[in-house]
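Record pair follows.
FIRST:
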Amino acid sequence: MGAVTLEPGDHVSEHYHPYSEEFLYVVRGQLVVTVDGADIDLAPDEAIMVPIGARHRLVNHGSESALAVFHLSPLAPEPRLGHVDTEPLPNADEPTLHVAGSD
């Protein structure tokens, strides 16, 4: 379980969860959730369940910060197996800082 805050224009790149359903509840702001190519508008106090394996992304097309709470269940057998990106991550072409011992 966690929370995500997206500022106007921000997005979460398309991905899927091979072992988990994802439940997403919008607390504040407006989000467009694209699930397997279909856009779904969510306002505060609205929620969606994304089925296992469904490609999805989040976008804040609004003019204010959006806050959503999410929950994944059941969990993948290992954290590295739980999230598969299907499009480039934002700023993927920018250099990243590597900390010694983190590789």
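SECOND:
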Amino acid sequence: MGSLAWEVIGVFDTEGDCAEWTFPPEPGAVRGARAAVRGQLGRWHLDSLADLTALLVSELVTNSLRHADGPIGLRLVRPAELGGLLLVEVSDQVPDPPRERIARAEDESGRGVALVAGSSARWGTRPGGSGKTVWFELAIPE
């Protein structure tokens, strides 16, 4: 992983299971991120979260592709201290945080952040050394 992506997504070091990837700023990054998420969640026996997590990651990676031109970081964390949560982070080199907005019916974009906000337990952004990380949490079903 490149040092820039690590700097952004490694802002908070979290103990627990962790998987991370860096994708080039190309359209195939969305497909690659979905596949990485599905594969890792399968290895962690969290298949029940795979569809939703892949959808939300797709939205955030697509936003990064639209607004950034550098590598896109993706990290999945099962924090040891928060056993019932999955933390997902998508990082890019643009420091401006995404804004949740209400898209009109005729708009072709603008629904991704609202989808993340409405589907996750919590979400937010944090600045990095040269960009930002958008994160969200999903409850792990018992």
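COMMENT: Residues 50-67 form the longest helix (18 residues).
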